[in-house]
Amino acid sequence: MLNFCDASVLSRYLFCCSYTHNVAPKGKFIAFVSTEAETDHPESELKPGIDLLGPVDEIFFDIYDRYEPVNEPSLDNCFISTVSAFFFSECCC
Questions:
Q1: Which domain holds residue 36?
Q2: Reported pTM
Q3: H helix or E strand, kind and range, residue 29
Q4: Which H or E run contains 90?
């Protein structure tokens, strides 16, 4: 049985926006598929998410460093959640 709170199961994120969001021409979508790379081949790690999109006109791959907040929220009242903390709180609680 799958444990849906296991990070290895939910390690890909898919976001789509379209004409209704005023970011793409009518009939087109902009999609982002992301993951935290665990191998030297992040493109293959993204494949399951990309396959959900169907045919694509153009695709770009880019790799970014991931940063964690280092501030002390109780001192500066700046509460910055991590991506995984937000995702799991929304999906698993």
A1: 12-92
A2: 0.60
A3: strand 29-35
A4: helix 83-92
Alpha helices in 29-82 (DSSP H): 42-51, 73-76
25-73 residue pLDDT tens: 999 999 998 888 888 888 888 888 899 889 999 998 888 887 888 889 8
CB 82 within 8 A of CB 68: yes
With respect to residue 60, please indicate whether it lies within any of the assigned structural domains: yes
The domain tally of the chain equals 1
Gap between the Cα atoms of 4 and 78, Å rounded: 30
- Own/partner contacts of 38-42, CB < 8 Å, gap of 24 or more, are 38/11
In a domain, 50, yes or no: yes
Q: Given the DSSP bridges, would you call strands 29-35 and 12-18 parallel, antiparallel or unpaired?
A: antiparallel
- 73 found inside a domain: yes
In a domain? residue 47: yes
What is the C-alpha to C-alpha distance for residues 44 and 52, in angstroms, rounded to an integer? Answer: 14
